[in-house]
Structures are given as structure tokens and as C-alpha cells.
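Q: For a teaching session next week I want to show students how multiple molecules come together into a single three-dimensional assembly. I've collected the sequence lines for a complex. Could you give me the predicted C-alpha cells for the whole thing so I can convert them for display?
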Amino acid sequence: MGPSSIRIGSGAGFAGDRIDPAVALAEHGKLDYLVFECLAERTIALAVRAKRDDPEKGYDPLLGERLSAVLPGAAANKVKIISNMGAANPVAAARVAAVIVRKLGIGPSKIAALTGDDVLAHISNDSPLLEGGTVAEWPGQLIAANAYLGADTIVQALAEGADIILTGRVADPSLFLAPMIHEFGWRADDWRRLGQGTAVGHLLECAGQVSGGYFADPGFKDVPGLANLGFPFADVDADGEAVISKLTGSGGLITAATCKEQLLYELHDPSRYLTPDVTADFRDVRLEQRGPDAVAVSGGTGAARPEKLKVTLGYHEGYMGEGQISYAGPGCVARGQLALGIIEERLKRLATEIIELRLDLIGVNAVAPSATPPSEQKEVRARVAARTRTPQAAAWIGREVEALYTNGPAGGGGVTQSVRPVIAVASTLIARERIIPRIHWEIVS
Amino acid sequence: MRLRDIAHTRSGDKGDISNISVIAYRLEDFALLRRAVTPQIVKRHLEGIVNGDVTRYELPSLGALNFVLHRALGGGVTRSLALDAHGKCLAALLLDLELSSPALRPLA
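A: Of course. Below is the structure for the complete assembly, covering every listed component.
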């Protein structure tokens, strides 16, 4: 007989997320599991490059800081950790975790690194892209290919006694679904429970985005205490039905409205939310307020899992250079427009190096291109961004903007500039049998 | 009356596709949302941003619509030159949508 319910907390919704809310959950949340989702679409391609430069790198850069902060509370309260912070190098990440566990003196601990998502060797040039065309036809150089793995290997690691599990690319909700499958013994074809559990996982995967983050709109949707936003946890029962809540005294808000926004976040067809585990169906999900900051989730279901797995391909596609400069006071919009015109003319000499150029006036049209400038605009910021073939050309963008100080319109100030490599992503599908998942162990006695 | 008066919105991104959920504050306003916020109207409101098709999904039990906007993120979050490459701001732009036609007034 398994437990009647388990409590799963969400410790991070992206790689740069706040650390203290997860520490609070580990220490005071009475959790069974704490899950950290830290791997965005293109992050893994950047990590692959980092690993190529140094075989001991390629995991999440904040892994050490996050684990050092969270593990004392987690170990004291027997909270198991699951995270995709392994990124391109879960095995090295597990070694780092072992060092931290020893240093903190909180062993024994069984740390599992999950691999198998790296499928670069299996991608052929003529594989079709979901975006159209083939792998070879996409511009840029293919540097990473990672399949979205499901809950199954995490479930196996839990069954073998893992305390900390570090993965590479795993579908975000699967990180949360795995402990439900493990604890309640759901069958691999129990599509209804897997669909409902996936709905719960999807609600939790962005951490604070279900508990009041990304929600506040003063006067319309007020949220208290965002500087002390509490991250969510779910009490999940053996049918996958759950109550989403947060620590008493923490900031934020959990209502049916915050949950609805998050349920539909990054969703396309709500009847077909595809994960490696199930084709989840969110159309009949019910969200009912059960108390202050407590919402019950039920009614999610699903159908058979997709036959093939999605693969994210990372391409190195040149560089992006950017420069910005501010103008203020009467006539600032005209001076900003003059500045952009000057840059456009200057950059003609780099035409063969520039793949795409974009000129914005922040405060006027950078986000909403059809907007007309308000007549009493007090300040604007001219922004120039370009995708280029070389890093030198990318650097030139910011330098041209900086040169507006002494060569451009009156009163230009506050120049910033940056250069970064562009990692574009595309997608393809791969047969499940091509994936060979493996669990590597680091045991601290 | 603007969309903001009866609904809240959130945008998300996947590749070059943005989705915007439009959620009625009161379930009884869902019928009005269905009539007033069509894919054509959303595409026109976000002219210059959305270059592909707009598909609408309905979630009546949540009082919500979900719009899927193709070719809306400057070629994809990771290569877009846009200041807001994720299109996080798009959902709020939609709140400005005017729902003034008498035929679209909420039911009392």
C-alpha cells in the first residue's frame, strides 16, 4: 500500500529563479519532493558548448549555489530532490552534488544522474523538421540534439532509492509526474491519471507563476508580497487530484485565476498537450478555491502517449550585437529617430556581414510596432540589434551606437552594448527505441 | 469597454509560436468573449507582430479562450532581435481591445 497523498514542491521555474523560496519550502514545507525546472529550450545547446570547452562543465551554472542552499533543509526533512539542472552533463552535476553533500556532512545520500537525452549522433541531415524543411536546410551549424525524455527513468531511479536526481532534457511536467507514478504505482497506460498528474505538474513547473508571479496588474489583479513570493506545493492523492498551496506567511496569491493562467501557459491545443508520458487533455480541468491560497485541481485526463519523442535541435546561427542610447526632453522622439537613421546609414558598409537588422525606439514602438508616439513623451531609448555572421560585426553594432555620443543627435546618454552568440532552436521527432536511458550513481556513505 | 474590464490574459512561447490565454473574470462573460474575441480580431489587433495564422481553442468550463499565434516571435525566441523576444508583453497588448459594439455588451 502506498501513501494516501504526497506533497511535491516547486523550487525553481527557470534557471535564474530566486533561491530563497526553495530554501523555505525545504525547511518548512513538510515536503516529500522538491523539483527544480531550470532548463529552457536553448539552454542545453549553450551547455553543450560549455561541456565541449571543459568536459567537467555543461551543467546548470547555479547548480552548486542552489544545492548548497537547499540541501541542508532537504536532508534534515528527508525531501527528495529532482531537477534537470544536469543540463548537458548530468554525470558531472552528480559529482558536484556529491562534493556538496560531503562538505555539508549531510550524507548518506544516493545521487542519480540520468543520461540518454543526447541524440546528436542519431540525427541525420535529411530528418524532417517540425518547422518545415530538413535538418540540413536550417541555417547555421547543428551543435546539439536533445530528446525530451519522460518520467520513466526518474521513476526507476526513485525505485532504486535515489535521494537526488539530476537529469538533462526531460519534459517539464514529467519531473513532477515521476514521484506520483513512483509513490502510487500508476500503470504506464493509465492515461487518465497520467493526464491529471501532468496537469498538476504543468501548474507547478514554473514555480511562482502559479502563486502570484507574472500575474499582478495593479487595480485589476493585485498581488500582495511579491518581494517575498512563496513558491507552490501540491498535495497529490492517489488519483492525481491535488490541492495547490504555499507556505503561510509567504507573499503571493493562489486563486482559480492564477491557476487558470498557468494551466494555459505555453499551451496550444488544450485537448492534446503532448508529453513523452501521455497526450494530456486539460479541457475539463476544474479549479476550485478550497481556502486562502489553496486551489483544488481535478478533471484532467489523457490518451495514449505520442509514438515518437520530440527532439530540440540547437544551431549556432551567427551572433547578435546590440546597442542602446537614451534621449529625453522636448523633441526626444525626433532625436531618437534621427539616431536610428544615422546608424542605418552607417551600417550599410557592413551589409554583407548583417543577416538581419532591427531598429526600435523603446517607449514608442519596441514592443508594439503599430503604436503612435504619445505627444508628451518625456524620454525614449533608441535600440539597434543585428544578427551577424561574425562576432566582430556584432561588436560593431554597439560601437556605432556608442559613437553617437559625439557624432549623433544632442543629448544622447546611457549607452549600453552587448554581443552574444545566437543559438537558434528547431525541432524534429525520434523513435523511442533509439533512446538508451542510463542511470549513473554517486553514493555518499 | 475594453477587454481588460472583463478578462485577464497571459502569453507563453514555444519556438516562433506565441499563445495568449484570455480568461473571463466571471464565467457569465465567456459568451461575450466568444463573440467578441475572434482569431481575426486578435490578428488585426496585433498587426505587425503576428505574421502567421491565429487559431482559437475554447475552454468553456474555465471561461477561457486560448489563441495560438503562428510566426509571432520574430523567427523564434532564440534568434529574434525583438526587445521582448518571448512575446511576454503580447498578452497585455491584447487587453486594450475595444469591445464597444452594442451587440457585444455583457449580459446583465
